Every structure is written in C-alpha cells, then in structure tokens.
User: Fold this.
Amino acid sequence: MKIKYINYGTGNRVGDTLYLYKELKKYPHLHEAVLLHEKRHTGRFSMFDFKLDIRNNELSKVKNDWSKFIITHPRTWINYLPIVKLGGQWTIDISLSIIWIAFAIMFYIAWTII
Ligand SMILES: [Zn+2]
Assistant:
C-alpha cells in the first residue's frame, strides 16, 4: 500500500493508494486515526465502505481535536465534496454522493412542504 501526501482533503483510498493531507503529519494522533480509517476501506465502493464512513469509529475517538483540525484547515473541506481530484484523476466518492443526494432530497421535500 502506497501513501501519497497531498495539499488538500483529509484522507482517501483509491485502490492500493492512500491520499492523506500533508498537514496531518503535524498531528500524529489524527494522522494515525485517518490512516487506520483509510486502511480499513476496501479501495473500491461497497456497503462496508459506506458503513465505515457513517460510523467513523477511528475518528470518533479524537472527535474534538478532529473538529478543531477541520475548522482551522479549510483545505480539508474539499474532502467533503463528492468529486475530488486525486493523483491527477477525478474521483467520485460514492458514500459522500449518497449523503449529498439524501440531503438534496430532504431539502427539496422541506422546501415544497413550506
Ligand atoms: Zn472513509
């Protein structure tokens, strides 16, 4: 498994390559949690991966520090977009796509009810 450090995002796994945000190296406990989480992913999409992202047990152990890290590092926000460029290729995050579509449907329903 290869690890590549990039200038944005938090962490992603594509096949056998992990893409981690380089600033994580300054926070070893957060780096370890993200690394553990990404290593558990299958490298392709499955229900296991979706459940892994919903539960996110690895990061819930460092929740407060993780939240501070996300707020103080705006380049991590890119990771919450359903489509991101990794290793020179555009990559679709299926878990995030499902979550974004679910939110869009909820907002649409709420908007039409009001
Ligand atoms: Zn994940």
